[in-house]
Amino acid sequence: MIETKTFRGQSTILSPQLTEMTWTFGAEGQFPLTTTLKLTPDGKIVGYSHPNESFWRIENHKLLLLKENGELMWRAAKVVKNQDGLLTMLLDTPEDPNTHFILQQNPANSAPIPAPEQASAGSAMPAPAPAQAQPSGIPDAEYLFPADLEVTPTKVKKVLLIGSCLTALYLEQFQKRYPATAFDYVPYNFVSVLPPAPPAPVGEYDFQYIQIPLRSVITDRIIWGFRFNEAGFANTLLQDAFAVIDVMLDAAMVYNKQHGLLAFVSNFIVPQMNSASSIHGRGSMNDIAALVRRLNEYLSSKVAEYNNAYLVDIDAVASSIGKRFVLDDMIYFYSHGAVAYQDWDDFGSIARNEPIPPLEQSYPIKRDAFVDAVFRQAVCTYRSVKQIDQVKAVIFDLDNTLWRGQIAEHYRPEARPWPRTDGWPLGIWETIHHLRARGILVAICSKNDYDYVKERWADVVDPNFVSLDDFASVKINWTPKAQNISEICKEFNIKPKSVVFVDDNPVERAAVTSAFPEIRAIGGNPYLTRRILLWAAETQVARLTEESSRREEMIRSQIDREETRSSMDRDDFLASLNCEVSFTIITNTDQPEFGRALELTNKTNQFNTTGKRWSFEEVADFLKAGGKLLCFRVKDRFTDYGLVGVLYVKGTEIVQYVMSCRVLGMEIEEFVVAEAVQLLRSDHNGNVDIIALLKETPDNTPCREVYLRTGFRELLSSNNMRTFVLDSDEVPFIPLHITKNTK
């Protein structure tokens, strides 16, 4: 006798086979409802989604199928093998003794399920041969949105859903599948007005998810397809749709506009096939598929006009999973644009000459996979916007990582033919440039002879899609890789936790992660590397700023600057920089510098006086309450570093001070404090005491003495917060080698 959470009885009768099989399920004598039902070892029913069949267990040698609320729905009354040797169970229900369903192992065809042969209840059956396992691959949600670079768990507490019946489906499924997250839903159809306030206080929501219904945008005019043959009809339809998008998006974004609530707006799912009246017309505006693609382009441009709002590409999700498994336009009208599922069908309740088979018999549906991917996309977008575990640099090995084989062995002139470069190597080379475009630094760390690699590079990297000059730092030597990576981190002014190390050798990866436990190391499977680096949330950039796009250039200039510093006296070096600082005061979130200021705040660890991360909404409230952001740009004879620092000031207090480490050590930090003091005192028409706060974090050693160096004195600490004051009769230290740009 075996007794577990989901089984009680003799293991040789049923239990070992139940979780190893795929089952057909349906009413006796009718077409099956599904051919993909599975019983999982933890007591769940998957492959078929209905609240009447959610869980299973064995009790007194009988299989029980349970409802979503745990109540009994079906009980195995008879268990036999049919004439084809398939394990077959006759199920009855306490709700109606005359109703019987069949659960049958791996049906060979789609004909109605035969009633089982007579047998006594609970008859012991010989164990059938287990079905051969098929490769399962990576789940759709994980495939599209890799979790390989995640370190910090995502805690999404509450989400506001705004949309049509498609969003209602999301609500139903999200609540079942993600019980740790609370969801509120506001129905939204044609130009309706949202309530003055959402169901809960705005501050409780992590984000809102907005879905504008396609039907409301293009209206039911498209039903009369012959009208597309009328001159000007398609263009009128398109222009009207643009106008509807303007109005509906503006109305749906009311909580974003009023409170700065982070908003994700899903685009429209493009129909699977074209609808043009002729083959010649495919791709024109007379084709609904082409029209919806144009609407998606327009919607994307309009979402970009809002602050703290981002498009989520639901069409890409549906395309990747397969629209034939998701979209309902093989049954419904084109503009419905929703997910196909059986729930809205009549299940054959109306008498017909021929019974209607279940929808999934003709059209397998991946509703669960689609819903999981939709939510995963939203969560990953949230991670990207909040810069959670953001990657700042990717360091590549060379042999068997950037190309196939070893350069010193497999690419010798006499060793032709050389390994092929098509496939994953070409994909990695392109990946490098896309990372650079996002402002992510790339470097090389390889145990090789530098001169030999440089000499043979063009032979190995063919076509020449990437060069050594494309890497911001190159360490090709026989030094231990951990030491080289340490030097690269110093050059880039970043912590190892912001680095991804790509190496095919598990020994090298282990050595590096042993030296730097926070570093993320991948590369064992070259088929995964490109997808992880390009698609993971941690390598996405919410908004590309000027500074982000020029980061590589600035790092190269910084390396040149440090080489010059090492050869000169400190005072002479500082005087030679010709350093200029220009200031901008931000008082509202619409100013163009705001995005960079928020990005810098949330990605800076070392020179960050409190370590606090700010949401868009928090900064908006800070500004509304009278706070200001004092931002500054730095330029010297080597480069223009862009906007590299921001001080949060309010009243007579410097609340927080963050600065990029690219300009650390140039006495910029002291010069800027003096400017902040002047700004605060000018707001009070005279000299007043200025307060500055500092909270020590594991990473912010470089900024802990900045206020003392500028003339502040320290007061007693309280609640783990250090407080400094510059008395009203004191003036701060101002470095003389720096000038203020007043243009």
From TrEMBL:
<dbReference type="InterPro" id="IPR036412">
    <property type="entry name" value="HAD-like_sf"/>
</dbReference>
<feature type="region of interest" description="Disordered">
    <location>
        <begin position="108"/>
        <end position="132"/>
    </location>
</feature>
<dbReference type="InterPro" id="IPR010037">
    <property type="entry name" value="FkbH_domain"/>
</dbReference>
<dbReference type="InterPro" id="IPR023214">
    <property type="entry name" value="HAD_sf"/>
</dbReference>
<dbReference type="InterPro" id="IPR010033">
    <property type="entry name" value="HAD_SF_ppase_IIIC"/>
</dbReference>
<feature type="compositionally biased region" description="Low complexity">
    <location>
        <begin position="118"/>
        <end position="132"/>
    </location>
</feature>
<dbReference type="InterPro" id="IPR036514">
    <property type="entry name" value="SGNH_hydro_sf"/>
</dbReference>
<dbReference type="GO" id="GO:0016788">
    <property type="term" value="F:hydrolase activity, acting on ester bonds"/>
</dbReference>
<dbReference type="Pfam" id="PF00702">
    <property type="entry name" value="Hydrolase"/>
</dbReference>
<protein>
    <submittedName>
        <fullName>HAD-IIIC family phosphatase</fullName>
    </submittedName>
</protein>
